[in-house]
Amino acid sequence: MNNKVLVKVLIPEIDEVYDLFIPINIRIGLVIKLLNESLVEVSNGLYVVRNNRKIYNVDDANPYPFNKLVRETNIRNGTTIVFM
Fold first, then answer.
1. Are 84 and 13 in contact (CB under 8 A)?
2. 9: exposed, middle or buried (C-beta count within 10 Å: 0-12, 13-18, 19+)?
3. Total domains in the fold of the chain
4. Are 28 and 81 contacting, i.e. CB atoms less than 8 angstroms apart?
C-alpha cells in the first residue's frame, strides 16, 4: 500500500490549485502544518501562513477533524480538498 496520496489543494484566497502528495499515516493537524509550510514555497510567497486554517471536504464543505489520520478520512488519490 502506498503511504501517500496525491490530492488537489484549493486555496481560495489566492485563487490557486496545487497537486500535492500528503502522507496517509499522519493526523490532519500535522497535514495543516505541512501545508502551511509548503504552500509558501510553491506559491512563490503569495500564500500567507495562518495558524487557524482547516482542511475542508470539497463535496460537503465539512472540515476534517484535526485528530483523525488521513487514512481514516475519505481523502484518497485524486481527492480535492479546500485549505482555508
1. yes
2. buried
3. 1
4. no
Q: At 50, which amino acid appears?
A: R
The string of pLDDT tens digits covering residues 4-54 is 999 999 999 999 999 999 999 999 999 999 999 999 988 998 999 988 999
Q: How many CB atoms lie within 10 A of CB 11?
A: 19
**What is the band of 1 on the pLDDT scale with cuts at 50, 70, 90?**
low
Set of cell numbers at residue 78 = 485524486
CB environment 66-81: b (16+ within 10 A), e (fewer): eeeebeebebeeebeb
Type of residue found at 26: I
Domain that holds residue 66: 4-83
* CATH code, domain with 68: 3.10.20.270
The number of helix segments (H) and strand segments (E) in the chain equals 1, 4
Local structure of 49: helix, strand or coil: coil
